Amino acid sequence: MAAISIGPDPSLAYRPNLMEKESKDKEDYRNFESGSLIDRVFNTYKLMHTNQTLDFVKRKHSEWSGCSHSQMGMMEAIMSLDQLVDESDPDVDFPNSFHAFQTAEGIRKEHPDKDWFQLVGLIHDVGKIMALAGEPQWAVVGDTFPVGCQFQNSIVFRDTTFLENPDDKNPAVNSKYGIYEPNCGLDNVLMSWGHDEYLYRVMKFNNCKIPEEGLYMIRFHSFYPWHSHGDYMHLCNEKDLSMLPWVTEFNKFDLYTKTTDMPDVEKLKPYYQSLIDKYCPGVLKW
Ligand SMILES: [Fe+2]
Ligand SMILES: [Fe+2]
Protein backbone atom coordinates (compact mmCIF):
# COMPACT_ATOMS: atom_id res chain seq x y z
CA MET A 1 0.00 0.00 0.00
CA ALA A 2 1.27 3.47 -0.81
CA ALA A 3 2.04 5.32 2.40
CA ILE A 4 0.84 8.76 1.48
CA SER A 5 0.24 11.50 3.96
CA ILE A 6 -3.19 13.06 3.90
CA GLY A 7 -4.86 15.70 5.98
CA PRO A 8 -3.01 18.22 8.09
CA ASP A 9 0.59 17.65 9.08
CA PRO A 10 0.34 15.33 12.10
CA SER A 11 3.24 17.03 13.83
CA LEU A 12 1.16 20.19 13.94
CA ALA A 13 -2.11 18.42 14.50
CA TYR A 14 -1.31 16.70 17.76
CA ARG A 15 0.22 19.63 19.50
CA PRO A 16 -1.88 19.73 22.67
CA ASN A 17 -2.34 23.51 22.65
CA LEU A 18 -4.47 23.18 19.53
CA MET A 19 -7.41 22.50 21.81
CA GLU A 20 -8.54 25.30 24.02
CA LYS A 21 -9.30 23.10 26.99
CA GLU A 22 -7.15 20.31 28.38
CA SER A 23 -10.16 18.17 29.21
CA LYS A 24 -13.64 18.33 27.78
CA ASP A 25 -17.01 17.93 29.40
CA LYS A 26 -19.36 15.29 27.95
CA GLU A 27 -21.57 17.88 26.24
CA ASP A 28 -18.50 19.26 24.47
CA TYR A 29 -18.18 16.12 22.32
CA ARG A 30 -19.84 15.60 18.92
CA ASN A 31 -20.71 19.25 18.62
CA PHE A 32 -21.63 19.63 14.95
CA GLU A 33 -22.68 23.27 15.22
CA SER A 34 -19.59 25.11 16.32
CA GLY A 35 -15.91 24.61 17.04
CA SER A 36 -12.67 25.13 15.21
CA LEU A 37 -13.00 21.99 13.05
CA ILE A 38 -16.59 22.52 11.91
CA ASP A 39 -15.98 23.58 8.29
CA ARG A 40 -13.82 20.56 7.61
CA VAL A 41 -16.40 18.30 9.25
CA PHE A 42 -19.32 19.78 7.29
CA ASN A 43 -17.51 19.51 3.95
CA THR A 44 -16.71 15.85 4.54
CA TYR A 45 -20.38 15.10 5.32
CA LYS A 46 -21.60 17.12 2.35
CA LEU A 47 -19.51 14.97 0.01
CA MET A 48 -20.51 11.78 1.82
CA HIS A 49 -24.25 12.53 1.75
CA THR A 50 -24.10 13.53 -1.91
CA ASN A 51 -22.19 10.51 -3.16
CA GLN A 52 -23.10 7.56 -0.94
CA THR A 53 -25.84 5.89 -2.96
CA LEU A 54 -26.96 2.26 -3.11
CA ASP A 55 -24.98 1.76 -6.32
CA PHE A 56 -21.88 3.37 -4.88
CA VAL A 57 -21.98 1.12 -1.81
CA LYS A 58 -22.39 -2.02 -3.93
CA ARG A 59 -19.37 -0.97 -5.99
CA LYS A 60 -17.26 -0.45 -2.87
CA HIS A 61 -18.25 -3.87 -1.53
CA SER A 62 -16.99 -5.57 -4.66
CA GLU A 63 -13.83 -3.45 -4.65
CA TRP A 64 -12.80 -4.09 -1.04
CA SER A 65 -14.47 -7.24 0.26
CA GLY A 66 -12.02 -9.56 -1.53
CA CYS A 67 -9.23 -8.19 0.72
CA SER A 68 -6.76 -8.15 -2.13
CA HIS A 69 -5.30 -4.66 -1.56
CA SER A 70 -2.41 -5.36 0.81
CA GLN A 71 -0.99 -7.76 3.39
CA MET A 72 0.24 -6.73 6.83
CA GLY A 73 -0.02 -7.51 10.51
CA MET A 74 -2.56 -5.74 12.71
CA MET A 75 -0.01 -3.68 14.66
CA GLU A 76 1.54 -2.42 11.45
CA ALA A 77 -1.89 -1.35 10.21
CA ILE A 78 -2.63 0.47 13.49
CA MET A 79 0.64 2.36 13.39
CA SER A 80 0.10 3.35 9.77
CA LEU A 81 -2.90 5.36 11.00
CA ASP A 82 -0.43 7.91 12.32
CA GLN A 83 -0.53 9.43 8.86
CA LEU A 84 -4.25 10.04 9.08
CA VAL A 85 -6.32 12.76 10.73
CA ASP A 86 -10.04 12.04 10.51
CA GLU A 87 -11.68 15.00 8.77
CA SER A 88 -15.19 14.07 9.93
CA ASP A 89 -14.41 14.12 13.62
CA PRO A 90 -15.11 17.33 15.54
CA ASP A 91 -13.28 15.97 18.60
CA VAL A 92 -9.96 14.70 17.31
CA ASP A 93 -7.23 16.61 15.62
CA PHE A 94 -4.40 14.20 16.28
CA PRO A 95 -3.40 10.96 14.55
CA ASN A 96 -5.59 7.92 14.85
CA SER A 97 -3.11 5.53 16.46
CA PHE A 98 -3.33 7.61 19.64
CA HIS A 99 -7.10 7.32 19.58
CA ALA A 100 -6.70 3.54 19.17
CA PHE A 101 -4.59 3.17 22.31
CA GLN A 102 -6.67 5.67 24.30
CA THR A 103 -9.86 3.76 23.53
CA ALA A 104 -8.28 0.40 24.36
CA GLU A 105 -6.84 1.65 27.65
CA GLY A 106 -10.19 3.17 28.65
CA ILE A 107 -11.85 -0.20 28.11
CA ARG A 108 -9.05 -2.05 29.91
CA LYS A 109 -9.62 0.04 33.05
CA GLU A 110 -13.33 -0.75 33.22
CA HIS A 111 -13.28 -4.24 31.69
CA PRO A 112 -10.00 -5.81 32.78
CA ASP A 113 -11.47 -9.30 32.30
CA LYS A 114 -12.51 -8.81 28.64
CA ASP A 115 -9.37 -8.88 26.57
CA TRP A 116 -11.32 -9.18 23.31
CA PHE A 117 -13.18 -5.96 24.17
CA GLN A 118 -9.87 -4.14 24.78
CA LEU A 119 -8.61 -5.41 21.44
CA VAL A 120 -11.74 -4.14 19.71
CA GLY A 121 -10.98 -0.73 21.24
CA LEU A 122 -7.53 -0.86 19.75
CA ILE A 123 -8.50 -1.95 16.25
CA HIS A 124 -11.98 -0.48 15.72
CA ASP A 125 -10.80 2.32 13.41
CA VAL A 126 -8.14 0.41 11.49
CA GLY A 127 -10.42 0.25 8.46
CA LYS A 128 -9.47 3.89 7.94
CA ILE A 129 -6.34 2.65 6.20
CA MET A 130 -8.55 2.74 3.10
CA ALA A 131 -7.87 6.48 3.08
CA LEU A 132 -4.15 5.83 2.90
CA ALA A 133 -4.81 3.70 -0.16
CA GLY A 134 -6.53 6.60 -1.88
CA GLU A 135 -10.20 6.36 -0.87
CA PRO A 136 -11.63 9.84 -0.20
CA GLN A 137 -12.37 10.47 3.45
CA TRP A 138 -16.11 10.69 2.80
CA ALA A 139 -16.01 6.97 1.86
CA VAL A 140 -13.98 6.04 4.92
CA VAL A 141 -14.78 8.09 8.01
CA GLY A 142 -17.80 9.62 9.74
CA ASP A 143 -21.19 8.38 10.90
CA THR A 144 -22.84 5.68 8.83
CA PHE A 145 -26.47 5.17 7.76
CA PRO A 146 -28.39 2.63 5.68
CA VAL A 147 -28.63 3.14 1.93
CA GLY A 148 -31.48 1.70 -0.14
CA CYS A 149 -34.14 3.25 2.08
CA GLN A 150 -35.17 6.67 3.36
CA PHE A 151 -32.43 8.76 4.93
CA GLN A 152 -33.84 9.43 8.40
CA ASN A 153 -33.78 12.74 10.24
CA SER A 154 -31.41 11.39 12.88
CA ILE A 155 -28.52 11.53 10.39
CA VAL A 156 -26.16 14.43 11.08
CA PHE A 157 -26.72 17.42 8.73
CA ARG A 158 -29.76 15.56 7.26
CA ASP A 159 -31.51 18.75 6.09
CA THR A 160 -28.65 20.34 4.25
CA THR A 161 -26.36 17.68 2.79
CA PHE A 162 -28.55 15.17 0.89
CA LEU A 163 -30.04 17.60 -1.62
CA GLU A 164 -27.91 16.29 -4.49
CA ASN A 165 -28.02 12.59 -3.60
CA PRO A 166 -30.01 10.93 -6.43
CA ASP A 167 -31.33 8.20 -4.09
CA ASP A 168 -33.11 10.85 -2.02
CA LYS A 169 -35.43 11.48 -4.98
CA ASN A 170 -35.69 7.91 -6.28
CA PRO A 171 -39.03 6.32 -5.26
CA ALA A 172 -37.50 2.82 -5.51
CA VAL A 173 -35.18 3.55 -2.60
CA ASN A 174 -36.53 6.57 -0.71
CA SER A 175 -39.46 5.03 1.17
CA LYS A 176 -39.25 4.03 4.83
CA TYR A 177 -38.30 0.42 4.00
CA GLY A 178 -36.98 0.96 0.48
CA ILE A 179 -35.48 -2.31 -0.77
CA TYR A 180 -35.74 -4.00 2.66
CA GLU A 181 -38.32 -6.10 4.50
CA PRO A 182 -39.52 -5.04 7.96
CA ASN A 183 -37.14 -6.29 10.67
CA CYS A 184 -34.90 -7.96 8.10
CA GLY A 185 -31.87 -7.57 10.38
CA LEU A 186 -28.90 -5.24 9.98
CA ASP A 187 -26.87 -8.06 8.50
CA ASN A 188 -29.10 -7.71 5.44
CA VAL A 189 -28.89 -3.92 5.26
CA LEU A 190 -26.28 -2.13 3.19
CA MET A 191 -24.69 0.68 5.19
CA SER A 192 -22.98 3.73 3.72
CA TRP A 193 -19.46 2.60 2.88
CA GLY A 194 -16.82 3.28 5.51
CA HIS A 195 -14.22 1.89 7.87
CA ASP A 196 -16.72 -0.04 10.05
CA GLU A 197 -17.95 -2.40 7.35
CA TYR A 198 -14.51 -2.72 5.80
CA LEU A 199 -12.82 -3.88 9.02
CA TYR A 200 -15.72 -6.25 9.69
CA ARG A 201 -15.11 -7.78 6.25
CA VAL A 202 -11.37 -8.02 6.91
CA MET A 203 -12.02 -9.81 10.23
CA LYS A 204 -14.35 -12.32 8.57
CA PHE A 205 -12.09 -12.84 5.57
CA ASN A 206 -9.10 -13.62 7.81
CA ASN A 207 -11.12 -15.86 10.18
CA CYS A 208 -10.35 -13.72 13.24
CA LYS A 209 -11.76 -15.14 16.46
CA ILE A 210 -13.30 -12.00 17.94
CA PRO A 211 -16.66 -12.78 19.63
CA GLU A 212 -19.89 -11.75 17.95
CA GLU A 213 -20.39 -8.79 20.34
CA GLY A 214 -17.02 -7.43 19.29
CA LEU A 215 -17.80 -7.85 15.60
CA TYR A 216 -21.00 -5.84 16.13
CA MET A 217 -19.01 -3.06 17.80
CA ILE A 218 -16.62 -3.00 14.85
CA ARG A 219 -19.36 -3.08 12.24
CA PHE A 220 -21.81 -0.57 13.73
CA HIS A 221 -19.84 1.76 16.00
CA SER A 222 -20.34 4.69 13.57
CA PHE A 223 -24.08 4.02 13.16
CA TYR A 224 -25.03 6.89 15.49
CA PRO A 225 -28.60 7.21 14.15
CA TRP A 226 -29.14 3.69 15.54
CA HIS A 227 -27.06 3.31 18.69
CA SER A 228 -27.42 6.88 19.95
CA HIS A 229 -30.74 8.06 18.49
CA GLY A 230 -32.77 4.83 18.53
CA ASP A 231 -33.60 5.16 14.85
CA TYR A 232 -33.92 2.42 12.19
CA MET A 233 -35.42 -0.04 14.68
CA HIS A 234 -37.88 -1.04 11.91
CA LEU A 235 -34.98 -2.78 10.15
CA CYS A 236 -33.61 -4.54 13.24
CA ASN A 237 -34.22 -8.13 14.28
CA GLU A 238 -33.92 -9.74 17.73
CA LYS A 239 -30.21 -10.30 17.36
CA ASP A 240 -29.53 -6.65 16.55
CA LEU A 241 -31.46 -5.57 19.64
CA SER A 242 -29.58 -7.99 21.86
CA MET A 243 -26.26 -6.63 20.54
CA LEU A 244 -27.20 -2.95 20.86
CA PRO A 245 -26.14 -2.63 24.55
CA TRP A 246 -22.66 -3.83 23.59
CA VAL A 247 -22.39 -1.25 20.85
CA THR A 248 -23.47 1.55 23.22
CA GLU A 249 -21.06 0.33 25.88
CA PHE A 250 -18.29 0.51 23.31
CA ASN A 251 -19.35 3.99 22.20
CA LYS A 252 -18.67 5.38 25.69
CA PHE A 253 -14.99 4.65 25.26
CA ASP A 254 -14.75 5.56 21.58
CA LEU A 255 -16.11 9.01 22.40
CA TYR A 256 -15.03 10.04 25.85
CA THR A 257 -11.44 8.82 25.86
CA LYS A 258 -10.55 11.40 23.18
CA THR A 259 -8.37 13.77 25.16
CA THR A 260 -5.05 15.45 24.57
CA ASP A 261 -3.44 13.06 27.07
CA MET A 262 -1.19 11.02 24.83
CA PRO A 263 -0.69 7.38 25.85
CA ASP A 264 2.82 5.88 25.98
CA VAL A 265 2.34 3.72 22.91
CA GLU A 266 5.74 2.01 23.01
CA LYS A 267 5.16 0.86 26.57
CA LEU A 268 1.70 -0.48 25.78
CA LYS A 269 2.59 -2.29 22.57
CA PRO A 270 3.74 -5.67 24.03
CA TYR A 271 0.46 -6.17 25.90
CA TYR A 272 -1.67 -5.37 22.88
CA GLN A 273 0.52 -7.45 20.58
CA SER A 274 -0.33 -10.42 22.81
CA LEU A 275 -4.04 -9.76 22.24
CA ILE A 276 -3.46 -9.49 18.51
CA ASP A 277 -1.59 -12.80 18.59
CA LYS A 278 -4.55 -14.37 20.35
CA TYR A 279 -7.40 -13.07 18.17
CA CYS A 280 -6.04 -11.90 14.82
CA PRO A 281 -2.49 -13.21 14.47
CA GLY A 282 0.05 -13.06 11.71
CA VAL A 283 -0.08 -11.34 8.37
CA LEU A 284 -3.64 -10.40 7.44
CA LYS A 285 -5.11 -9.79 4.02
CA TRP A 286 -6.60 -6.29 3.62
FE1 LIG B 1 -14.62 4.67 13.92
FE1 LIG C 1 -12.98 5.63 17.00
Automatic annotation (TrEMBL):
- Look up the signal peptide feature and give its range: none
> Could you identify this protein by its name?
Inositol oxygenase
Residues binding Fe cation, per UniProt: 99, 124-125, 195, 221, 254
Q: Which InterPro entries match?
A: Inositol_oxygenase (IPR007828)
Q: Tell me the name of the encoding gene.
A: MIOX
Q: Which residues bind substrate?
A: 30, 86-88, 128, 142-143, 221-222
Catalysed reaction(s)? myo-inositol + O2 = D-glucuronate + H2O + H(+)
Q: How is the cofactor bound?
A: Binds 2 iron ions per subunit.
Cofactor(s) required for function per UniProt: Fe cation
In which family does this protein belong, per the annotation?
Answer: Belongs to the myo-inositol oxygenase family.
Q: Which PANTHER family match?
A: INOSITOL OXYGENASE, MYOINOSITOL OXYGENASE
Q: In which pathway does it act?
A: Polyol metabolism; myo-inositol degradation into D-glucuronate; D-glucuronate from myo-inositol: step 1/1
